[in-house]
Amino acid sequence: MDGASLTQRLLERHRLDAEDALQQVALAVLQQEGIRDDSVLRLDRIAALAPPVAGMVLLAEWLAYVDWEGFDSALYANIDAVAAIIAGALDLPAVAANLLQARDATVFEAQRPALAPAALLFIERHIALFPG
Q: In 3D, which of 7, 36, 41 has the Cα closest to residue 128?
């Protein structure tokens, strides 16, 4: 992978765990842009990124929030934006509909394994926008 971008190397290194790869790419974006956890303008700064990049960072952060705070709490954290990313960028409208309508944790956990691989494919299609 000589000459591969940082994002390409992260995707390759974490290929066996797609969700970890997504988290690593999101972390690389945040570090490159100097967006820290304690920033009061964090969401505004993420939203100001190129839309494909902002969407994947928001998705990664939301999935981490599900793990930290639980699915029920995550339903109140940017759920409309996350559902739009899942339906549009990832082309998984059934997962998005569950989040917005059914709000069923069991169904979400069954659908969750499809999210990160779809996100990685999306990142690969927009690789030039991600950390080089």
A: 7
